[in-house]
Write a structure and sequence with these properties.
The N terminus and C terminus are likely disordered. The chain is of the alpha+beta class and 554 residues long. Strands 2, 3, 5, 23, 25, 26, 27, 28, 29, 30, 34 and 35 form a 12-stranded antiparallel beta sheet that branches. Strands 8, 10, 11, 12, 13, 14, 15, 16, 17, 18 and 20 form an 11-stranded antiparallel beta sheet that branches. It contains 6 helices and 38 strands. It is 20% helix and 43% strand. Keywords: Coiled coil, Membrane, Transmembrane, Transmembrane helix. It comes from Faecalibacterium prausnitzii.
Length: 554
């Protein structure tokens, strides 16, 4: 009764407090009703919140309890170990050549089939070249004409001896200006003197060229030997109505005969009707072939010269320009001729390489246009493949290294290849750079272009090497050994090891997927220990040993 009153008195004295109490009472009543209605999901939520609070209030230095590690103890063992790179690639022929037509025309012959082996230079196709042959003949004629024109133009610079003989006179001097057709020199051939005499026609009809004659010089009556060089074929009526024929006799000149000397002759006892004077065997008056200046005189009067010898040289702007023009015309004709010959060669198509016909796209009778693909040849003397090698490993490869090759298409057979090229140009993708390596395979029995092949290149190997499992090498090059091992004396005091063990620094060598060669640090008499469960991707060989990125349990 007293509490109730006191409470009532308080409400009476503070109306606002009473109102607040009424509001609070209402909220509590509503909360109770909500809890009764949703208790099924509120209980699990409260558990989660409680667990979170416990975690937040947990001391920060409270660590998970350590789990004991189980070590495998063993001794280092001698074994063969090798480090190799591998890759896959597609086999390609040593050389591929697509034969194409360079001309238009109809195929006349195509005497080969797909699968045939052909030698370099073997005729594969012949194409109708009738039109090209006509054009080639025209080019030949044009070249001949251009050559003659050039020769004549060049020859206009020179005065040549038209016959062999002696220069009897020179009519110009060096530096003289001459015009075309002007007389410049005289050449005489007096090695033989010619004597033309009349003989009775009836007797002369029986004379013949080459027959001997006896020549008698007038005045001295000296007799010389001569030879008939010509007999006219028709009779002529001479003085006294006597039918005669003219007989020409050649007499070798020892140097004393001149054109002033007269003589008679007898042939087979028949004498000439009258005497006559000698004539030179040949005499030519030479003229300038073109206008110009005498730039050189190569002979003197009285000099003996051969036929076509250059006696006088001419020069001048007109001559130089004419020679240049003729030279250009000749060169143009030569080029046209060469082009036509090259074109003619394209109508006979030969194998560019020795190899096997893989495709034959055109047959006899087909009509071709320039650029048509005719056939495809593969040089199968060897095969090649290319693999991409990571930038971290490319330095271990060199030309000449042997490669083990296998192909899924040829079961139970291994091949040997050779590295022929290590490219200096890399291909980058996704932050990694790889370099193409070309491999040649000479013995290809069973292999074909297009097959996929596997290549394995041994970059380092060691036989009878002291090895430990890869898992035994930790923390950049340490091995865990028992304290009673001989090498325990070399333990690194800075390395904290499990009870009964110590860490020894080792020098590693060749490594494969399972074992690593130990070059120094431990011996075969040691007992090593390792956690077989510690092998993971967190260890890799950086060239000096295995590197730990901190994620291992050691």
């Amino acid at each position: 009764m007293i509490w109730k009153k006191k409470n009532a008195a308080m409400q009476g004295n503070d109306p606002s407090a009473a109102a607040a109490n009424d509001k609070t009472a209402g909220k509590l009543a509503g909360a109770k009703a909500f809890a009764r209605k949703n208790w099924k999901w509120l209980v699990p939520a409260a558990v989660v919140v409680l667990a979170g609070g416990v975690f937040l209030l947990k001391p920060a230095n409270d660590k998970q309890a350590n789990v004991d590690t189980s070590y495998v103890e063993t001794a280092p063992e001698e074994r063969d170990v090798s480090n190799s790179l591998s890759g896959t690639g597609t086999l390609n022929p040593a050389n591929t050549y697509t034969v194409k037509s360079l001309v238009d025309g109809k195929v006349l012959t195509a005497d080969f089939e797909e699968g045939d082996t052909v030698e370099e230079g073997t005729i594969l196709y012949t194409i109708d070249s009738s039109d090209a042959s006509t054009n080639l003949e025209k080019a030949e004629i044009a070249l001949q004409q251009a050559q003659r024109s050039y020769d004549k133009t060049v020859d206009r610079q020179y005065v040549r001896a038209e016959v062999a003989g002696t220069v009897s006179s020179l009519k110009v001097a060096k530096g003289d200006e001459v015009t075309s057709g002007q007389e410049v020199a005289v050449i005489r051939d007096n090695s033989k003197m010619m004597l033309s005499l009349l003989f009775p026609a009836a007797d002369a009809a029986n004379f013949s060229v080459g027959q001997s004659a006896q020549v008698v010089l007038d005045g001295t009556f000296e007799t010389l030997d001569g030879t008939i060089t010509a007999v006219t074929g028709t009779d002529e009526l001479s003085t006294g109505n006597l039918l005669t024929r003219t007989v020409t006799i050649a007499v070798r000149n020892a140097g004393g005969l001149t054109t002033a000397q007269a003589a008679t002759a007898s042939i087979n006892g028949v004498s000439s009707i009258a005497s006559a004077t000698f004539a030179y065997q040949a005499e030519r008056t030479l003229t300038a072939p073109s206008s110009g200046t005498v730039s050189a005189i190569n002979v003197q009067e009285g000099s003996a010269v051969e036929k076509d010898a250059i006696l006088i040289e001419l020069a001048g702007d007109d001559l130089t320009e004419s020679v240049q023009s003729a030279s250009e015309t000749l060169r143009s004709a030569e080029i046209s001729m060469q082009n036509m010959q090259d074109t003619m060669a394209n109508y006979t198509i030969t194998a560019p390489i020795s190899g096997t016909v893989i495709e034959k796209d055109v047959k006899q009778g087909d009509a071709l246009t320039s650029g048509t693909s005719l056939c495809v040849l593969y040089d199968l003397s060897y095969l090649e493949m290319s693999i991409n090698v990571d930038e971290l490993e490319i330095g271990s490869l060199s030309v000449g290294q042997k490669v083990q090759i296998t192909a899924d298409a040829v079961a139970d057979k291994n091949y040997v290849g050779t590295v022929t090229r290590v490219s200096m140009k890399g291909n980058s993708s996704g932050g990694t750079t790889t370099y193409p390596v070309t491999i040649r395979i000479d013995s290809i029995d069973g292999l074909r272009p297009g097959m996929n092949a596997n290549a394995e290149i041994v970059v380092a190997e060691s036989t009878s090497a002291l090895c430990v499992p890869n898992a035994a090498i930790v923390r950049g090059g340490y091995v865990l050994v028992t304290k009673d091992s001989p090498s325990a004396a070399n333990a690194d005091p800075e390395m904290e090891a499990p009870d009964g063990y110590v860490y020894v620094d080792v020098k590693t060598g060749v490594s494969d997927d399972d074992y690593t060669e130990i070059l120094d640090g431990i011996t075969a008499e040691d007992t090593i220990a390792y956690d077989p469960n510690s092998v993971s991707d967190s260890y890799y060989d950086d060239g000096s040993g295995f590197y730990d990125d901190g994620s291992s349990s050691f």
